[in-house]
Amino acid sequence: MHSGIRTVVKIGGGLLARADCLGAVLAEVAAATRESPLLVVPGGGPFADTIRDVDRRLGLTDDAAHWMAVLAMDQYAHFLVSRMPSGELVVGARDAAAVLEARRIPVLAPYRWMREADPLPHSWDVTSDSISAWVAGQVGAPRLVLVKPAGASGAAVLDPCFLRVLSVQVKAETVTADRIAELRKAIAAHAI
User: Fold this and answer.
1) CA torsion sign, 154 to 159 to 163 to 169?
2) Which of 12, 28, 74, 171 sits between 20 and 30 A of 130, alpha carbons compared?
3) Mean pLDDT of the region 27-45
4) Tell me, what DSSP letter sits at residue 166?
């Protein structure tokens, strides 16, 4: 599907730990949207961490943990929209295109779309990173920017399924929230 979306920006839930970084990232996303159509995909952050904790303590089936974690992304999507004056919640590619047409910022609540398509394994090896990679491929976006918390680095910064899910047509870049100039450059790389 070609939606006109040039960039998918995944905003990690870990940014909730630093309000200053999150605010700066949201300002960059808002500014970039004026130049190039993008879609925001939320991470899971502390909402998904709660599910991980319940799984560790009480044990969940892989299916229950997976769908609960995707619902955690929906919770963060609602939070992001509440912090973005021109943000609007969407549940799929068609909604995102309509929101972009209205010159607003689409923020994906992925549960409904993921539940209908069910494209990924149900395991903690799949996080919002892999979901973002899948979404980028589905909307035909040539670019995926993963915004991680300040200081994030190393091999563990991406989930184990990410590279298997990422389409060869999508160029992915990871940027930490404390490097706003790099984020600006990454988001603007496909401005039209």
Assistant:
1) negative
2) 28
3) 89
4) S
How does pLDDT run across 173-192, given as a tens digit for each residue? 999 888 888 888 888 765 54
Rounded to whole angstroms, the Cα distance separating 90 from 158 reads 25
Predicted model pTM = 0.93
Residues 143 and 190: beta-carbon distance below 8 Å? yes
Q: Retrieve residue 117's tokens.
A: 């398509």
One-letter amino acid at 78 equals H
Q: Could you tell me the residue ranges of all domains in the chain?
A: 7-188
pLDDT at 154 over 90: no
State how far the alpha carbon of 142 is from the alpha carbons of 30, 136, 169, 172, 173, in Å: 19, 7, 6, 9, 11
Annotation: CATH topology of 7-188: Carbamate kinase (3.40.1160)
pLDDT digits (tens, 9 = 90+) for 100-142: 989 999 999 999 999 999 999 999 999 999 999 999 999 999 9
| Range list of β-strands (E), 48-92 | 87-90
32, 164 contact by CB (below 8 A): no
